[in-house]
Amino acid sequence: MFKAFLIKFAEIGVKGKNRDLFEAALAQQIKYALRRCEGQFAVRRNRGRIYIEALSAFDFEETVENLKTVCGISSICPMVQAKDEGVEKLCQDVVDYVAAQYPEKRFTFKVDARRAQKNYPLNSMEINALLGEKLLDAFPQLRVDVHKPEVMIHVEVREKIYIYSIEIPGPGGMPVGTNGKAMLLLSGGIDSPVAGYMVAKRGVKIDAVYFHAPPYTSERAKQKVVDLARLVARYSGPIYLHVVNFTEIQLAIYEKCPHDELTIIMRRYMMRIAEQIAKKTECLGLVTGESIGQVASQTMQSLAVTNEVCTMPVYRPCIGLDKQEIVELAEKIGTYETSILPFEDCCTIFVAKHPVTKPNLGVIKRHEENLKDGIEEMVRQAVETAELIVAEV
Ligand code: ATP
Ligand code: MG
Fold it and tell me: Do 4-169 and 181-391 come out as alike in CATH topology?
């Protein structure tokens, strides 16, 4: 029944030239999502709206599922199209729409008509009144409620007639590509994919870095991270994933630093390396899945010590979320099932039984001195030999 979609987006704060960029980026992301769907579509921008028209047979569910991944979309409205063949035919089309769409005809409604053609024989108010009357005639159990209708029946009279009443929520936010690029530290856990999604939703393109420690972390653990990057890429577009070999650095820390400080020192090296790659790839910030107090390395003291090595802003979109809230988001975006697969990541192998929860920066820096023979070269090597994988759907 549906052959087209009206795409609604929030435009608050997006004005003038930026608005045009915003819409163009949104149209581009929509096309990218539709490429994954069966069928041919035309995407058109018209007066601050975006319309998608199916040019061939298509799978409705699949199309909606993919559109739900486009950041910037606030709602997806499936529309019925009809030829403009006069007022009487319009009334019949709207009655047919309600007949087909709502098996139970017990609801309150309101008609909201708009006309683009100002030479149409009726104005919007007259169309509303006429269609309301025709619907009540056809379905006597319906009731009009102009203030809080259960069903709002939108009718647009343009070169064709468009009818819609369903609004499927999209992710909201802003189209990817309208807000620069950031480097996500992506592990195989639950939190960092969610963090990536949350910045992508604000229009930020993301690259990612994963610290791999073969043979302590398996190929399957790496594959899991690639899979997670692909899942996030449904929302963010293609992700350039840099896989850094971290084994040598991790072993050096393990050998030369106190074991209760391993995680903190390791996290500082991760941040340093991520930042170097971020600078080379024109990222404007780092993104992690950290949340205050979640583990020893995420107390306020630990975060301060980790953060101290960064000169770029570090964005932590999960910072105030409880684990359960992060899990719910992971389920919503479809990364949870993959995140809980039981492959070790490099942090779980080199963890101490009793890691420090209140590290002292001076002490940590002193212990990092133990690494001074060779660590710079190791970091340089790690950055230079990073493997690049393009993760896309
Ligand atoms: P996650 O669920 O995202 O793995 P976590 O609760 O396991 O997080 P940590 O292991 O302390 O927490 O990691 C904190 C953050 O550091 C992660 O969210 C991620 O951004 C980054 N990180 C940790 N390990 C790695 C890794 N091997 N490669 C890349 N980033 C990592
Ligand atoms: Mg982790």
Answer: no
- Domain map (residue ranges) of the chain: 4-169, 181-391
Structure tokens at 9: 């987006």
**27 CA to middle of ligand 1, Å?**
33
**90 pocket-lining for ligand 1 (C-beta < 6 Å):** no
Query: Which atom of ligand 1 sits closest to the CA of residue 194?
Result: 3
Q: Tally Cβ neighbours within 10 Å of residue 10.
A: 14
Is the model's pLDDT at 214 over the cut of 90?
yes
pLDDT at res. 13: 63
The DSSP element (H or E) to which 378 belongs, if any, is: helix 375-384
The CATH code belonging to domain 181-391 is: 3.40.50.620
pLDDT band of residue 14 (cuts 50, 70, 90) is: confident
Give the ligand at the shortest distance from the Cα of 228.
1
Q: What is the pTM of this model?
A: 0.92
Q: Is the CB of 177 under 6 A from ligand 1?
A: no
Backbone dihedral angles phi then psi of residue 157, each to the nearest 5 degrees: -105, 105
Beta bridge partners of 239: 391
Selection from 147, 138, 76, 68 nearest residue 110 by Cα: 147
With a 6 Å cutoff on the Cβ, whether 192 touches ligand 1 is yes
Residue 371: predicted pLDDT: 97
**Looking at the domain 4-169, which fold is it?**
VC0802-like (3.30.2130)
Distance, CA of 20 to CA of 75 (rounded, Å): 19
The pLDDT mean for the chain works out to 94
Of all protein residues, the one whose alpha carbon is nearest to atom 4 of ligand 1 is 189
Report the nearest atom of ligand 1 relative to the CA of 190. Answer: 2
Residue 344 binned pLDDT confidence (cut-offs 50, 70, 90): low
Given the CA of residue 326, which atom of ligand 1 is nearest to it? Answer: 2
Q: Is the CB of 132 under 6 A from ligand 1?
A: no
- 228-249 pLDDT, tens digit each: 999 999 999 999 999 999 999 9
